[in-house]
């Protein structure tokens, strides 16, 4: 899983080091990089495995081929996605197009979200995190454990 948050600086050549535990998790799944695309919800980047983007592509393909929504999703996600491969030192080069969407200038915050992660400008994320924590508190009763057996946590 992708857990925790890690801040790294973009070097002069536009590369950023991906956190070691994120790389390790991706490597354990057989990947030497990840897919990234602009978030719909935030000035941030979504990041996931090839398998996950294929599931998203399949969900898009399941829509009626002549429906406008299908084109909207395909254009907004698939055409904007980039395959970022690790170099020998565990860095990736994030394109200017993606950096501009996330309003990232010099530092990058990798934010673990379980099966995926996001890439943020650190200042923008800290503002969002305070808002998200407030909303999570307000909606905490919606989060339920899956009960497999009575009495089991």
Question: Can you identify the CATH superfamily?
Answer: Transcriptional regulator MraZ domain
Shape assignment: globular
Q: Beta fraction of the residues?
A: 15-25%
CATH architecture: 3-Layer(aba) Sandwich
Give the proportion of residues in helices: 25-40%
**Total strands:** 8
Count of discrete alpha- or pi-helical segments spanning 4 or more residues:
5
Distance between the termini: 20 Å
Given as residue ranges, the uncertain stretches (5+ residues, pLDDT < 50) are: none
Q: Radius of gyration from the CA trace?
A: 17 Å
Number of domains: 1
CATH class: Alpha Beta
Brief summary:
The protein is 37% helix and 23% strand. The chain is an alpha+beta fold and 153 residues long.
């Amino acid at each position: 899983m992708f857990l925790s948050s890690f801040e790294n600086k973009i070097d002069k050549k536009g590369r950023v080091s991906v956190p070691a535990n994120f790389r390790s998790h991706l490597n354990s799944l057989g990947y030497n990089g990840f897919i990234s695309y602009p978030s719909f919800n935030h000035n941030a980047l979504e990041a996931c495995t090839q398998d996950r983007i294929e599931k998203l592509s399949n969900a898009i393909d399941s829509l009626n081929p002549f429906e406008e929504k299908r084109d909207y999703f395909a254009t907004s996600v698939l055409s904007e996605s980039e395959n970022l491969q690790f170099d020998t030192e565990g860095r990736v080069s994030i394109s200017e197009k993606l950096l501009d969407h996330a309003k990232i200038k010099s530092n990058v915050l990798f934010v673990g979200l379980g099966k995926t992660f996001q890439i943020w400008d650190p200042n923008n994320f800290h503002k969002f995190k305070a808002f998200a924590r407030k909303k999570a508190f307000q909606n905490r009763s919606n989060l339920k454990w899956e009960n497999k057996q009575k009495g089991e946590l």
